[in-house]
Structures are given as C-alpha cells and as structure tokens.
Amino acid sequence: MSSTSQKHKEFVAEPMGDKGVNCIAGIGEVLGNRLVEKGFDKAYVLLGQFLLLHKDEELYIDWIKEEIKANKKQGRDSYTCLKEWCDSFM
Coiled-coil segments, which residues (predicted)? Predict the structure, then answer.
C-alpha cells in the first residue's frame, strides 16, 4: 500500500468537527469547489454520502468520478481517508 499524505494523516488524527470538504485527502481546490457547488460543503456532508454508499469503495469511487469528475486516484485517496476516519471514530 502506498504511503499516506500529510493531509490524510491530519484528517484521520482528530474528530471531523466542522472541517471543510477540502480537508479530505484527494480533494483539492478544484474538486472541493465542485463538491461545494453540489451541496457538499463540509467534510461531514461528504461522509454522509460515503455512508449512504455503505462505505463501498467501488460505489464511492464511481460516484465521485461521475459527480465531480475526480480521477481514480483522487477517488481512492478520499475513500481511504474517509474509511480510516470511520475506523477510528465510529
């Protein structure tokens, strides 16, 4: 498995609180703005979608690629970040 980014480590290290969606690994400024335009302005809102997709990697990556034109790596990075956060805090 590849090493995780600093952004990933910081996100999974503490409760999500009111963090913006851009705080999630794999979600930069462009994808973050696309998510905000679709109503996913906070990390917890994207987490809700992640949970609605039953934490399923394939479903989530397909959804985020379709919804905001993320590439597979961005989808996988954000999936892994949300999954590890859930494993630690839920």
Answer: none
CATH 3.40.50.720 fits 6-89, yes or no: no
Domain parsing of the chain, residue ranges: 6-89
Identify whether the C-beta of residue 22 lies closer than 8 Å to the C-beta of residue 29.
Answer: yes
Q: Are 53 and 60 in contact (CB under 8 A)?
A: yes
Q: How far apart are the first and last CA of the chain?
A: 23
Write the DSSP symbol of residue 23. G
Euclidean distance between CA atoms 47 and 85, whole angstroms: 10
pLDDT by residue (tens digit) across 45-67? 999 999 999 999 999 999 999 99
Residue where the block lists tokens 């790596």:
73
